[in-house]
Amino acid sequence: MTVFDILAKRNADKLRAVRADGASVRYHLRMDGSEAGAIDVFELFNGVSLAFNSIPQGTASWDDIEPLELQIDWCLRGRFQLDDGIRLGDGELAVHDERVRKRSMRFPAPLYTGFTIRISRSEGAEVLSRLLSLDFDALAQRLTGSSGCKIYAPDPSMKALLESFWNIDEREPLMRLRLKTLELISLVNATPRLAPRAEDYLQRSTIESLERGMRLLGSNLEQNVAVADVAEASCMGISAFKEKFTKAFGIAPMAYRRQCRMGRAAQLLVATNKNISDIALSVGYRNPSKFSAAFAATFGRSPSGYRAANSSGSVSRASSDRARNSNPRRS
């Protein structure tokens, strides 16, 4: 039984397998609200799995298992936060061991896209140690440090390799992902000093203020909202709010609101039969042509084309489509 089999059994109301194609299994992760994210899991080796994550904005809580394992998380786009203060942003790499538990996970951006490699301390460590001739325990200790988790900023070579995981098509995907994972572990092992992420030094009280602004930016999408009003709600001046918001969440305030509007429009296109003009109005666009142009710039296709491509899907399928459009990989 795999780790995700156990997780799905423990969290039957939150995580369930919805499709298996021989190389991978797709799970739907129900958020604490009504939306669901998609997780595509590949069992690479005995004790080593790779999960591609496409998670909408919200919070996910589950009963995590207690395995002895190393996890490597890479964020292609979006934000990922744990209750203990760990935050992962665009292009960042997190490595943690069993001292860190993912029991409550927050995704403040409209969509989180990334992957997770899980390596068990027994079977997985043995397989990688044998295939790569490395001391897995020493590597894990170096990567996680005394706290059990470190966050890194990959160098250009490692970043290119990480991004290439999304460029696997249907030709032998399992074998090719195995090779890429071995290459990644080998490269990490051969890099004695991974560059740590630059600390942003934002206090928790500041983050909470910014999150108030984020909630305001993500609400009442049919109305116009001024940055000055959002900054005031966050108890900051306009310039300070813009700077700190961008630093904390990796996106400018009004760009975030535009993402929220386009994300909501994508949901409505898939889940309802509303006409495009009405959907445009519901996300703040009085001019349907301007809405269509903004939507196409975000998703690479017109609203009608997006609806046709997802006509038999669901909201979570639309989220997955967003992930593919942001950086394509196998579907």
Average pLDDT score: 85
Q: Using DSSP, what is the number of strands? A: 10
The SSE string, one letter per element, is HEEEEEEEEEHHEHHHHHHHHHH
| SSE class | alpha+beta
Amino-to-carboxy terminus distance: 25 Å
Query: Major β-sheet, in short?
Result: 10 strands, antiparallel
What percent of residues are in strands? 15-25%
Low-confidence stretches: 312-331
Overall geometry: globular
Q: Over all CA atoms, what is the radius of gyration? A: 20 Å
Number of helices: 13
Helix proportion: 40-55%
Keywords:
10-stranded antiparallel β-sheet; disordered C terminus; 331 residues; 13 helices; alpha+beta; 43% helix; globular
Describe this structure in words.
43% of the residues lie in helices and 23% in strands. The longest helix is centred in the last third of the chain and has 19 residues, at 253-271. By secondary structure, it is of the alpha+beta class. Strands 1, 2, 3, 4, 5, 6, 7, 8, 9 and 10 form a ten-stranded antiparallel sheet that branches. A hairpin with a 4-residue loop joins strand 1 (15-20) and strand 2 (25-30). Helix 4 (156-164) packs antiparallel against helix 5 (173-189) and helix 9 crosses helix 12 (303-309). The chain has 13 helices and ten strands. It has helices at residues 3-10, 123-132, 136-144, 156-164, 173-189, 204-217, 227-233, 238-249, 253-271, 276-282, 288-299, 303-309, 315-326; strands at 15-20, 25-30, 36-45, 48-61, 69-77, 80-82, 87-88, 93-96, 104-120, 149-152.
